[in-house]
Amino acid sequence: MTGPGAVDPGAEAGPAEPARIDRVDVGAKRSPHNAKWSEYGPDVLPAWVAEHDFRQPDPVIEAMAATIERREFGYHRRDPEVAEAFGGWARSRYGWDPDPDLAVVCVDALQGVTAAVTALAAEGQGVILTPPVYHIFWRICPTSGRRPVEWPMRPGPDGWRLDPDDLEAVVAADPGARVLLLSHPQNPTGNVAGRDTLARIVELAHAHDFHIVSDEIHGDMVYSPAEFVPMLSLDGAAERVITVTSPAKTFALSGLRCALSIFGDPELRRRVVEAHPPLLLGHASRMGVDASVAAWTEGAAWADRLVDQLRAHRDHLARRLAAEAPAVRLHRPESTFLAWLDVSACGLGDRPAAALLERARVALVEGTEFGTGGEDHVRLNFGTSKAVLDEIIDRLVPCLQAP
In terms of DSSP H, where are the helices of 122-256? Predict the structure, then answer.
C-alpha cells in the first residue's frame, strides 16, 4: 500500500484485467494549486470533487505543447474546430450526427447550462431538478430569481431511477415550470436513463410546453449493458432540447475551460444566444480549445481504456465494501466514476461525510448537498489508482460498521 505522499507506480495488468492507465504520482498531485488534493490538508485522501486523477492521453498534451512552442497565446479562430471535433466523436461513439453550425462554444459546461436555463425560464418561473442531483445545480435558481421545482428520483432495488409519470404530475401541478435541468448520465447516483424514459420526457416537454437542458458531460463513461442515448438524438427533441457537454470529465480538463452548447433547431439556438448580452458569456481559452479538439479527434482509444479501468475500480470498490463493510448499501453505478453510498446503518450522524473526514481522514461529499434523498448518503470518487482507492477503502472500512 502506498502512503499518502508516495508515488504510486501502478500494478502491471494481469491477463484478466484491462490495460492499466491509473498510475498516479500522489506527491505531484499534492501541489498547492491542485484543488482536489490540497483542499483538506496533506493527511487527507480526496474522494470528493468529480475529477479523476489519470494522466491525459499524449495527443492532448502534445497539442498544448505545440501552442506553447509557437507562443500562440493571443486571440484565436478555432471555435468551429471544437464543434467539428465533437461531431466526429458523437458520430463514431453514439451514432448521432449533430450539426456543428448549431453548436455554441462556451467557457465551461456550467456556463452553458446556466445560460440556457436563464434564457428559457424567466424570473419567477420554475426550473425542474431531479434530486438527489449535482449539488451545483441548486445554486442556479436562488442566484437568478428562478424557482426550483423538484422531480425526485425513486430509489429501488436496482438503484435510483427517474419515473416519467412523476414528471407528468409535477408539470401538471405547476404549469409555470419552463425548464427541466437533467444530469444525464446522473450525478451522483450513476443512473443512465434508457431510451424509453428519455423519449417520454421529450413527449411531455411538447405536451406541457417546457424545455430540457441536458448536461451530458459524463456521457462517455457508461458501463455495459447500460447505453448512453444523447437527448438530441431522439425524435422530436430538436425543438425542445439543449445539450451541454465537454471533454472535461472524461479527460480531466476542467481547468482549461472549453465546452459546447448543442442545438438541433436554429430558432431555439437564436433564442438562447440572444437572451444574453453578446459580450457576457466570453470565449473558451486557446489551451482549452487545443485540448478539446485533440481529445475528441485522437482520444477514443484512451477513453475506451479509461472506461475499462473505471469499471474495474467500481467493481473492486463494490466487492470490498460488500465483504468488509456490509452495513453500506451501494448500487453499482451505471456511469461516472462516482459511487453513491447509503451509510444510514453506520451510526455516523446527520453529517456522515464530516464524520468520515474527522475519523478516517478521507474527504467525501455530504449527501444532503444533492437535495432530497441525499440524507444518510455520501458521494465517493473512485477515479484514482487502485492503490489510492485501496487506501481510501482501508481508512473508511473501520468507520462503516453497524454500531
Answer: 140-144, 164-173, 195-208, 248-251
Pairing of strands 159-161, 154-156: antiparallel
Helix %, strand %, coil % for the chain, to 5?
Answer: 45, 15, 40
For domain 7-56+300-399, give the CATH superfamily.
Aspartate Aminotransferase, domain 1 (3.90.1150.10)
Give the span between the Cα atoms of 160 and 332, in whole angstroms.
Answer: 11
- Give CA–CA dist 109/113, Å, rounded: 6
Rg of the chain over all Cα atoms, to the nearest angstrom: 21
Residue 338 near residue 381 (C-beta atoms within 8 A):
yes
Of 117, 133, 113, which is closest to residue 50 (Cα–Cα)?
Answer: 133
**CA gap 137, 129 in Å, rounded:** 8
User: CB neighbours of 297 closer than 8 A, spacing ≥ 6?
Assistant: 59, 85, 88, 89
Q: What are the start-end ranges of the H helices in 209-324?
A: 248-251, 266-274, 286-298, 300-324
Task: Please state the φ and ψ torsions of residue 67, each to the nearest 5 degrees.
Answer: -65, -40
Q: Do domains 7-56+300-399 and 60-298 have the same CATH topology?
A: no
78-113 pLDDT tens trace:
999 999 999 999 999 999 999 999 999 999 999 999
Q: What is the pTM of this model?
A: 0.94
**What is the maximal distance between C-alpha atoms in the chain?**
61
- Note the pLDDT tens digit of each residue in 306-362: 999 999 999 999 999 999 999 999 999 999 999 999 999 999 999 999 999 999 999
Question: Per-domain residue ranges for the chain?
Answer: 7-56+300-399, 60-298
Q: 60-298: what fold? A: Aspartate Aminotransferase; domain 2 (3.40.640)
